[in-house]
Amino acid sequence: MKEARRAIRPLIWFSGGINVLMLTGALYMLQVYHRVLASHSLETLVMLSLMAAGALATMAGLEVVRGRLLAKVGAWMNARLAPVLLTASVEYSASAPGQANARPLRDLDQIRNFFTSPSIFPILDAPWAPLFFAAIFLMHPWLGWLALVGGIMLFALAVLNEYLTRKPLTEATNAQSRAYVQAEAAIRNAEVVQAMGMLKPLLESWKEQQDEANKGQVLAANRGGVISAIARCHRLALQMAILGLGAYLVVRNEASPGIMIAASILMGRALSPVEQAIGTWKATVGARAAYRRLTAVAGQHPEATPALPLPRPKGRFEADNLVLTRQGGEPILKGISFRLNAGETMALIGPSAAGKTSLARILGGAWRPSGGRALLDGMDVAQWAAEDRGHYVGYLPQDIELFAGTISENICRFATLNPAVFNNVVKAAQLAGVHELIKGLPKGYATEIGESGAVLSGGQRQRIGLARALYGDPALLILDEPNSNLDREGEDALIAALGAVKAAGTTVIVIAHRSNIIEKVDKILVLNRGQQDLYGPRDYVFGELAARVRQVSQLPAIAANQPIAANQTITANQATAANQTVAANQDSAPARARRYAERKLRPSLNLVPARPDPPPKQGSGRGGEAGAAQPRIREQI
Fold first, then answer.
1. Domain range list for the chain
2. 476-480 and 507-511: which strand pairing?
3. 98-153 pLDDT, tens digit each
4. Domain 2-300: what homologous superfamily?
5. CATH (residue range 317-538)
6. What global pTM score does this model have?
7. How far apart are CA 158 and CA 164, in angstroms?
8. Which of 149, 139, 148 is nearest to 262 (CA)?
9. How far, CA to CA in Å, does 310 sit from each of 261, 381, 387?
């Protein structure tokens, strides 16, 4: 924003030259009265006229240059500031979902339009108004005082206009912004709106915001119209007053007729910026509010971290006491610590709202932790420039967001397409098991998928999102519920891809609920209410969870001998084993234990069994009760 202010400075000097040349009319009038009429010299009149014409031509040239400079400043602001504002909006939206949108870009458009409109001229001309008042004082002090007092009164009207219109204009702007957000949300979720008949209530809500915006704008326009009419009458009265005072001074031989006319011209020019500002106050207030918002956004945008040409990480990852708090100070994650060697795979499991997705966003560098560090080969991912870190990190979010463009553009993350890039696109698609699916589309990799991948199904979007995460052979792969929309074929492709990247030495962190993925990992981290509940090798965590299940299985016997206290705390994380051992009688003590365990423990992990496998061939299954015990435990968790 400092650069923008520096770009405006030449405009002020051009405006100064224009305002100085605007004295031409008054000076020409004085010289005609004093020299031409007194001497009856036509030569003098011709010379004065030629000089005045030259000055006016110069002023016109300066006006043209100023207009072009304003247009260039607007274009420069769009070219220089738009990328910065978009970057700041994206980064802020990533750290505070739902609290940012494209408003900074609309604010920039508003400021650019203001610079290319006549509304900017009063601001550029107002600093030079004292020049005209000083010229009037030089003609006669009485005329100067009259013009100055009149100017102060007109300025007071401008201040009153600001006071009376600021609140309704601000409320109208905020309501209009809310209406835009609602309209964009309705259009973005058109399928849900149409399918569930939500258009009418949404339209009513949108109309309420529009009505509030219109109400504020009408109120501000009415008040501004009254002030503008008063200001116009006041200026005309002042011009008549200065002519009357000038005539009085001429009658008393204290001034010449030329001074009377010139003072009237100069006062009109001195008061013109104030009167114009009152008429264009709405645009000025809107541009000022937009500028303040942009200044705040630019102030929140940190200096870009230099993109150091670091070598490809090996994949060693460490979380060191990670903490994440909400804006109000409420903790989301507390004290998360773990370590993964290159090529290891970790499952992140836990109940809903345990903080799994928040942790994944921190590990991938999308969010900055409130405390602690996430280190990839010893480099803090939060301090690593995103454009450099992105080459080595693959991230599949819970909500798949694809962009308007072709499939190949989405997979390569909108890098410039060339043969080498396209080969990597195909490689990533093959690794994700989506290559054959893409070939079956009308235009293959050149298929336009529309906004948010609208032409694709949920499973197709998820598989293309997986290919995007795998693009470029990342050293760290973070997958947030990668199989939530997949069918059996998609899950098989996902498991095959996980095996391939593990064999290639990629470190993988996956949020999953199905045991067929969890059984493929090396380590498991269990989160509960934002805290680290269990962490360790897969078999160790399985054993701990199995022990908790066995503890729950003893509840029926405990309940048969004594009642269960309402505030009793159970530390186990699964109640399935208890369900298999309690009696069916709903009034018995074991039944009370079963219901208590279900109520207390069922939400603790939010895990579901794997999709059922096809029936095994006769004689191919594991024999013996001991051999089947471990698979049953893994399905339960």
1. 2-300, 317-538, 540-610+626-636
2. parallel
3. 555 567 777 888 888 888 788 888 888 888 888 889 989 998 999 999 999 998 99
4. ABC transporter type 1, transmembrane domain (1.20.1560.10)
5. 3.40.50.300
6. 0.65
7. 10
8. 139
9. 75, 13, 12
